[in-house]
Amino acid sequence: MARKIVAGNWKMNLLRDEAFSLVAEITGMLNDEESRPVKIILFPSFIHLGAIHQLVASDARIAVGAQNCSDKASGAYTGEVSAAMLSSYGCKYVLVGHSERRQYYGEDNVLLAEKINSILHAGMRPLYCVGEQLEERKSGKHFDVVRSQLEEGIFHLSPSAFGKCILAYEPVWAIGTGLTASPAEAQEMHAFIRQRIAEKYGQEAAENTSILYGGSCNDQNARELFSLPDVDGGLIGGASLKSRSFVNIVKALP
Ligand code: 13P
């Protein structure tokens, strides 16, 4: 069975004290309201990552991840942050292939495959995002786009390396727009992704891979999305910046 996970991608939001307060509020609410051993990953910006890790280090429910990392191991790459540096600050996961990185920073599947290798080499787990643009869906190309993102970005991995990865389906047209994929659209694509994994790595690997949904997921729609057979939780943007909505989404895990 795939592990159920709720991840909060804070993107380029929250100043230092805001970030610390958010974590304190989330852990307080979880202590009061959630007795299950839920799995939560918080993705703050690089600069808060070490401090946030220290705040949650003793909390088995919460891990910290980075929103990006370099594809290079070390050296003269001004402004970059390596996977090994992240790991040395307690980071356990790294987002790769988020549509904002693909769209605004020109990151393609070839580069993303390199990043995934670096993350695994440093002993962390990649959370690899796939998803189509609105035009691609309208023209019926959404399955082809996601298939290529899988084949070119992550299917080069060995079965054991792939087993360390988490996937997220984030339709680009649903990110930050308030337009959520319908349960039928989400389930259809998640099942498609799981089927591609089964063809490449076998049925057991496919069943064990967590595939999260992202894109305007909030505390109103999370329960329905998380109840879908192939949705194993959520990758939350805007609604992860408010403790009440984020904890409600965590509580919506089945
Ligand atoms: P929103 O939840 O704000 O739509 O963002 C989703 C996302 O991009 C998470 O990575």
How would you describe this structure to a colleague?
The chain is globular, with a radius of gyration of 17 Å. It has one domain: Aldolase class I (TIM Barrel). It is an alpha/beta fold and 254 residues long. Helix 5 crosses helix 7 (142-153) and helix 7 (142-153) runs parallel beside helix 9. The protein has helices at 16-33, 46-56, 83-88, 99-104, 109-121, 134-138, 142-153, 159-162, 183-201, 203-208, 222-226, 243-251, and strands at residues 5-9, 39-43, 62-66, 93-96, 125-130, 166-169, 211-214, 233-236. It binds 1,3-dihydroxyacetonephosphate. 1,3-dihydroxyacetonephosphate (13P) binds at residues 9, 98, 170, 175-176, 214-217, 235-239.
Count of strand segments? 8
Helicity range? 40-55%
Shape: globular
Rg of Cα set = 17 Å
Residue fraction in strands: 5-15%
Largest sheet: 8 strands, parallel, barrel
Poorly predicted spans? none
Mean of pLDDT: 97
Number of structural units classed as domains: 1
Strand order of the largest sheet: 1-2-3-4-5-6-7-8
Return the CATH class: Alpha Beta
Structural class comes to alpha/beta
Quick recap:
The protein has one domain (5-251): Aldolase class I (TIM Barrel, Alpha-Beta Barrel), CATH 3.20.20.70. The protein is built from 12 helices and 8 strands. It has helices spanning 16-33, 46-56, 83-88, 99-104, 109-121, 134-138, 142-153, 159-162, 183-201, 203-208, 222-226, 243-251, and strands at 5-9, 39-43, 62-66, 93-96, 125-130, 166-169, 211-214, 233-236.
Strand and helix map with partners:
Blueprint: E1 5-9, H1 16-33, E2 39-43, H2 46-56, E3 62-66, H3 83-88, E4 93-96, H4 99-104, H5 109-121, E5 125-130, H6 134-138, H7 142-153, H8 159-162, E6 166-169, H9 183-201, H10 203-208, E7 211-214, H11 222-226, E8 233-236, H12 243-251
Parallel strand pairs: 1-2, 1-8, 2-3, 3-4, 4-5, 5-6, 6-7, 7-8
The chain binds 1,3-dihydroxyacetonephosphate.
